[in-house]
Amino acid sequence: MKEIIAVIRMNKVGPTKKALVEAGVAGFTALKAVGRGKVVENIEIIADRKKQLLAKTNPEDPKAEQVATEFLDGRGLFPCRMFTILAHDEQVQTIVQAIIKVNKTQHNVGDGKIFILPLLDAVRVRTNEHGDAAI
Length: 135
Prior knowledge:
alpha+beta, 4-stranded antiparallel beta sheet, 33% helix
């Protein structure tokens, strides 16, 4: 058994839920979170992404440029969604590929992370089933 934790962009929640259901995931938990990833140091990527972010904001918002800059230079924490999925070992690669397929963008920054951890046990509260039967 494995636990899969996926941290994704907020605007990818709907497609991710759909992809997980289509991949045969029995259930999952999604939590609101804030965080940030590795700081991108390539100034061309930063300039391009800043331009894209500012194009989506209200031009009269005085904080828009500050928020975009903090996002790209590592000072800010940003809203994201964290999915937790329990899976049988043989399902892991299918689930991971489904998550990647709907979350990979062409922005070269901020597409998320997926963590795969061993799971010692799971218990279904209703039936007291343990292990794989509880998933």
